[in-house]
Design goal:
Elements (H helix, E strand, L loop, with lengths): L6 E3 L5 E3 L14 E2 L8 E2 L10 H7 L3 E2 L4 H8 L1 H10 L7 H17 L11 H24 L4 H55 L5 H35 L9 E2 L7 H5 L3 H11 L1 H12 L3 H59 L4 H39 L4
Parallel strand pairs: 5-6
Antiparallel strand pairs: 1-2, 3-4
Helix pairs in contact: 2-6, 3-6, 4-5, 6-7, 6-10, 6-12, 9-11, 9-12, 10-11, 11-12
């Protein structure tokens, strides 16, 4: 099995769906504590101080974003999660009948305020329309009460599902950040090569060995490379900002994005797909919710509809896990191939270093080899990140987020 970032209950009794580090987070709906301008603002967390050790709190509140603390930061500082924690207080311990009664009470309130208009009233038509609309609202609320299949536990499952989805999203975003960073590195190397080609073309033009059109073409290549770098840097900055805000930092906070973990190659090789499919169906949030709702269904029609949905979603979820596994294996194969290519380029690069030192290779040929080596290096990093993304997708599919639609 791969080492997955599972959701679990923290010491404070709330759900924690993974891990990752950041510094001085701030939750949007909580009071903020002012700190020095050089540091991000710190907010009150969703859990009390005794929920974690002093060392853990210090790690959560430093200025580093580490992959293995993402889930804790989402749980403590993500605005959506905190709002859901507050909303859940209204449903904690509520039974199906309690929630149904809320609909009935609301219907009674609307009904009690209804007043059938007198036909002699000057605004009879508009008041009659209002009365009929209120009657429709009453009927709808009572129908919702009859058909309600939720209780406090089901509400919590929905909130837990949202939190787990946010953790997965943040993990994927952090991996994507590094994918974009490596791509930017590759673009910078491409610009260096374009600049060398331009300089060479200008030299040849001065010697009458190239045309003005060749110079302009080479110059356009440099300009195009610069434009690509600018676009990539803007995209990278946007990903960084969105990730940090999602995990609780204020806008523009100075955060160190730490490296992501290596893919678990041994764990991937040891996967028991059939066992994981079974586990995925047991863990799936949507299926858990449907199971409980089926038990609460009062009308035969509602029950049959929910049972059919459960059957369809169970089949889709199982196929989703299998598809995620296939993607994982393909990503692993791509990574292994990229590693082999990188090792070959490394050997060639070492030989080029020796040749340059011995004076048997021109600087231009050396730069071409260096570019080829850098491309292979960036490619193996990119394939590693693609594999890590596939691993995160598979792990979360098994841990409750397999697609059901």
């Amino acid at each position: 099995m791969t080492g997955r970032m599972k959701a679990g209950w923290g010491m404070a009794g709330e759900n924690v769906a993974g891990k990752s580090v950041i510094g001085k987070p701030v939750a949007g709906i909580l009071l903020c504590i002012a700190v020095a301008a050089s540091s991000p603002s710190v907010s009150l967390a969703g859990s009390p101080e005794f929920a974690y050790t002093a060392e853990q709190w210090a790690s959560f509140r430093d200025n580093k974003l580490e992959f293995d603390e993402i889930a804790y930061l989402i749980h403590e500082y993500n605005n959506t999660v905190i709002q859901n924690q507050i909303a859940y207080k209204e449903y904690r311990g509520e039974t199906r009948d309690d929630i149904s009664q809320d609909y009935y009470d609301a219907a009674d309130d609307v009904y009690g305020a209804m007043d059938y208009p007198d036909s002699s009233d000057s605004d009879y038509a508009s008041r009659l329309s209002s009365y009929l609309n209120s009657q429709i609202q009453v009927d709808k609320l009572r129908e919702q009460g009859d058909d309600n299949v939720d209780d406090g536990e089901i509400k919590k499952l929905g909130y837990d599902q949202t939190e787990a989805t946010l953790v997965k999203q943040a993990q994927t975003s952090m991996i994507n950040y590094w994918t974009q960073a490596y791509n930017l590195e590759s673009l910078n190397e491409g610009k260096t090569q374009a600049q060398l080609a331009y300089d060479s073309t200008v030299t040849k033009f001065s010697a009458g060995m190239s045309t003005q059109a060749d110079v302009l073409t080479a110059k356009e290549s440099v300009s195009s490379a610069e434009a690509s770098i600018l676009s990539a840097r803007t995209s990278l900055d946007k990903t960084r900002e969105e990730l940090c805000l999602m995990l609780g930092w204020t806008y523009g906070a100075d955060v160190e994005i730490c490296d992501v973990p290596e893919p678990d190659l041994d764990g991937i090789s040891a996967i028991d797909l059939e066992a994981d499919v079974t586990k995925a169906l047991e863990n799936n949030y949507s299926l858990k919710i449907l199971e409980k709702q089926i038990n609460y269904a009062v009308s035969a029609t509602n029950r049959e509809s929910l049972e059919q949905s459960y059957k369809n979603q169970k089949e889709v979820a199982a196929n989703s896990v299998k598809t995620a596994y296939q993607n994982l294996i393909l990503a692993k194969e791509d990574y292994v191939q990229a590693q082999q290519s990188y090792e070959l380029e490394s050997s060639t690069m070492a030989a080029a270093d020796r040749k340059l030192l011995a004076g048997t290779m021109t600087r231009n040929d050396y730069q071409k080899q260096k570019s080829s080596f850098t491309t292979a290096e960036v490619n193996v990093r990119t394939k590693k990140l693609a594999l890590l993304t596939a691993q995160v997708n598979y792990d979360w599919a098994v841990d409750g987020l397999a697609s059901v639609s």
